[in-house]
Design a protein that fits this description.
single chain; mainly alpha; 65% helix; EF_hand_dom; calcium ion binding
């Protein structure tokens, strides 16, 4: 695999590491999303331990309002984090 392909697979694996814990094995509920953000993105996102911030983010990501974040919805978060990181690199 190329470096990019390896990183893409890593994102999928991280999602599944948290999604298989409770309920549907291929979606994240709010507590699973919080664990993922707290453990995997503590430096990339602000307020990762602030429940109102997590609630707001969950609502934004849950496009179909089914109380679950699918991988497709999760990719929105990954895209936002990548965009912010890309902008930060150019400011250094």
């Amino acid at each position: 695999m190329t470096k990019l392909e390896d990183h893409l697979e890593g994102i999928i694996n991280i999602f599944h590491h948290y999604s298989i814990r409770l309920g549907n094995y291929d979606t994240l509920n709010k507590s699973e999303l919080k664990k993922l953000i707290t453990k995997e993105l503590p430096n990339a996102l602000k307020n990762t331990k602030d429940q109102p911030s997590i609630d707001k983010l969950f609502q934004e990501l849950d496009a179909d309002k089914d109380a679950q974040v699918t991988f497709e919805e999760f990719v929105v978060l990954v895209s936002r984090v990548l965009k912010t990181a890309h902008e930060a690199i150019h400011q250094e």
